[in-house]
């Protein structure tokens, strides 16, 4: 299991489109992907889960990957997380 | 048996069609215990697949009919139907609790919707409607019913719903939906605003009685009167078919006036302008072919917030309006606050007689900094169109002179900074205090125009609050004393080579327009929807004839006498 924390910089936060892109990417990895925001957590392969985290600008999000290809998942999804927020 | 419901007329029109009731969230599937868990999970899986096939078909149809942006919502729906937090979670519930698929899915979806609705972000809150849409679709499949989505309706329909969400209205198939009735809502609710922009007949807030309307019931929707007749008699159907046809003919006739000039039968040109409260109203103004904006109430820029709007903020709004109106004149009224309109962050002391107190121009001259910021924004915007600045509630000459002095100072400052200001900018005042009307000949020398604000002018002249039921009968726009004041103002403008307009409600009143025309009013400013009927009326009137008739009206003894006279004249002309 590996994890890392990212800070959201996109002014609009994590809405529908980025959530969909994120989930599609997460689905390419066999490992479990989980996002944590404070006390709340969500399945990284569920866009509804991601939406209900209500991520907005300035939030600290911990990304956790557990299972096969976890290192690669954390790297790519983490990169994508900040990438998406920069779009 | 037919029965009648009444509600709020949200968007005018008459429609006659079968009702379609949009399922409300309240319908909860029954919870049942199941023995064969595997079979129940298979049932859910099949229902999801069937729902997906439907959505995919609608997506393709929408893509073809309305293009990619409209089809996107269905792509999102397909994606959501694969979401593990929804379908997998429902599968888990079936297994762990041994319950039926309908109930399990409903439970899971409710949890998600609740979480989404609690979000701060409007965009995320609206996603609850999508979850409701897709789970509703799957549940109907499970229950073996046919799901008719709003986008799939294929015959003339009047929608009946508790309320319509943004996602509902986005999917309305305008080819078939003729109107809608909701149980809750007001003139300003989302669905009402939507209906007006789509020009769809709608009655909102019809109350719980509307919940009795079933899919397939015949419905007459008279949205102009705010009435809904359920299962009408043959006689009613006949009567309303005629009314509907007449209304449609009227609409077509009115539309033919969009690009026509505002000219009387004897060739006199007038200006039919529109009142606006913000940039959202612009579209309607343009669609109705108004000759300009006769009153832009800038209060909305200041209200519903906790701090003053900045110069930059104001500038961008004024610029936008001026640009949108092309070369047409835009009269922008400076801040008219105080009285019944409060601003919490202004922290004004309570007054015993707010209507006779520190309000409008009086307040601006007291809080000069506030005034200067607005004037600067207006002056900067003046180069983007044809701007006229109007000071509200001028009572005496010195107020006007003081306001003009401050305006000149701000202009000089801007010019020093090298910021361009228009030289054709007009400066005028609103006439809404009898003292100003009586001294119009003196004030006329200092302005480019007058605009008569009848709502307050009548209240101050009659010394009666029109919102006070006991004295509201004194609100008499057609009373000779009001007409005489209006005459004084117009004459003073004319003699000084200035123009006179009116931005109060009277300007759009069909029984007042002939008289105002007769008095020589140049500009009439009204709500956007009144412009075309006014233009049609003006085109039938002779200005010369009405100036003679109006002289007669000025000598009458009551409002009723004037009204009877005008109506009789209009009838004999028709």
From TrEMBL, chain A:
Keyword Transport: yes
Lineage: superkingdom: Bacteria
BP terms from Gene Ontology: phosphoenolpyruvate-dependent sugar phosphotransferase system
Cellular location(s): Cytoplasm
Cellular compartments per GO CC: cytoplasm
Start and end residues of each HPr domain: 1-87
Keywords: Cytoplasm, Phosphotransferase system, Sugar transport, Transport
Entry-linked InterPro entries: HPr, HPr-like, HPr-like_sf
Official protein name in the record: PTS sugar transporter
TrEMBL record, chain B:
Any one cellular-component term (Gene Ontology): cytoplasm
Superkingdom of source: Bacteria
UniProt EC number: 2.7.3.9
Binding site for Mg(2+): 432, 456
Coiled coil: 34-61
Active site per UniProt: 190, 503
Name this protein carries in UniProt: Phosphoenolpyruvate-protein phosphotransferase
Gene name as annotated: ptsI_1
């Amino acid at each position: 299991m590996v994890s890392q924390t990212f800070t959201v910089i996109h002014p609009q936060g994590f809405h529908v489109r980025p959530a969909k892109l994120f989930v599609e990417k997460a689905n390419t990895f066999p490992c479990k992907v989980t996002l944590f925001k404070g006390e709340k957590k969500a399945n990284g392969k569920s866009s509804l889960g991601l939406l209900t985290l209500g991520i907005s600008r300035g939030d600290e999000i911990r990304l956790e990957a557990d299972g096969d290809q976890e290192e690669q998942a954390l790297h790519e999804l983490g990169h994508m997380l900040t990438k998406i927020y920069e779009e | 048996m037919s029965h009648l419901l009444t509600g709020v007329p949200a968007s005018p029109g008459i429609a006659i069609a079968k009702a379609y009731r949009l399922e409300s969230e309240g319908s909860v599937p029954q919870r049942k215990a199941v023995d064969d868990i595997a079979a129940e999970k298979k049932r859910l899986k099949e229902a999801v697949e069937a729902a997906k096939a439907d959505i995919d078909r609608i997506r393709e149809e929408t893509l073809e009919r309305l293009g990619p942006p409209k089809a996107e919502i269905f792509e999102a729906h397909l994606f959501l139907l694969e979401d593990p937090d929804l379908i997998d979670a429902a599968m888990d519930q079936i297994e762990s609790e041994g319950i039926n698929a309908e109930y399990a899915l409903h439970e899971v979806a409710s949890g998600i919707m609740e979480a989404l609705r609690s979000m701060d972000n409007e965009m995320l809150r609206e996603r609850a409607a999508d979850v409701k849409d897709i789970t509703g679709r799957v549940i109907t499949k499970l229950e073996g019913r046919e799901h008719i989505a709003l986008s799939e309706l294929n015959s003339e329909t009047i929608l009946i719903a508790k309320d319509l969400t943004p996602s509902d209205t986005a999917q309305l198939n305008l080819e078939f939906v003729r109107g809608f009735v909701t149980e809750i809502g007001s003139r300003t609710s989302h669905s009402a605003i939507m209906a007006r922009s789509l020009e769809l007949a709608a009655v909102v807030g019809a109350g719980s009685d509307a919940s009795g309307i079933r899919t397939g019931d015949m419905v007459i929707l008279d949205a102009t009167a705010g009435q809904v007749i359920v299962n009408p008699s043959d006689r009613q159907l006949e009567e309303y078919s005629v009314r509907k046809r007449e209304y449609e003919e009227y609409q077509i006739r009115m539309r033919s006036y969009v690009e026509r000039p505002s000219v009387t039968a004897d060739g006199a040109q007038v200006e039919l302008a529109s009142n606006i409260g913000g940039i959202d109203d612009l579209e309607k103004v343009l669609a109705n072919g108004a000759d300009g904006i006769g009153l832009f109430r800038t209060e909305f820029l200041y209200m519903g917030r906790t701090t003053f709007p900045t110069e930059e903020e104001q500038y961008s709004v004024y610029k936008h309006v001026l640009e949108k109106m092309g070369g047409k004149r835009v009269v922008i009224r400076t801040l008219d606050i105080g009285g019944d309109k409060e601003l919490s962050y202004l922290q004004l002391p309570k007054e015993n007689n707010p209507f006779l107190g520190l309000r409008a121009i009086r307040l601006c001259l007291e809080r000069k900094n506030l005034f200067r910021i607005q004037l600067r924004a207006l002056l900067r915007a003046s180069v983007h169109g044809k701007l006229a600045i109007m000071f509200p509630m001028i009572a005496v000459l010195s107020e006007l002179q003081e306001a003009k002095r401050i305006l000149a100072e701000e202009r000089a400052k801007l010019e020093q900074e090298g910021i361009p200001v228009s030289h054709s900018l007009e400066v005028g005042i609103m006439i809404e205090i009898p003292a100003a009307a009586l001294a119009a000949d003196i004030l006329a020398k200092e302005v480019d125009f007058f605009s008569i604000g009848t709502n307050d002018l009548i209240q101050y002249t009659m010394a009666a609050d029109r919102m006070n039921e006991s004295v509201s009968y004194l609100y008499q726009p057609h009373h000779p004393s009001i007409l005489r004041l209006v005459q004084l103002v117009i004459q003073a403008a004319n003699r000084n080579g200035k123009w006179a307009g009116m931005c109060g409600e009277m300007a759009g009143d069909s029984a007042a327009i002939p008289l105002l025309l007769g008095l020589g009013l140049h500009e009439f400013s009204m709500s956007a929807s009144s412009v075309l009927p006014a233009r049609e009326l003006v085109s039938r009137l002779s200005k010369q004839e009405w100036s003679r008739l109006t002289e007669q009206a000025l000598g009458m003894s009551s409002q009723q006498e004037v009204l009877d006279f005008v109506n009789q004249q209009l009838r004999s002309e028709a």
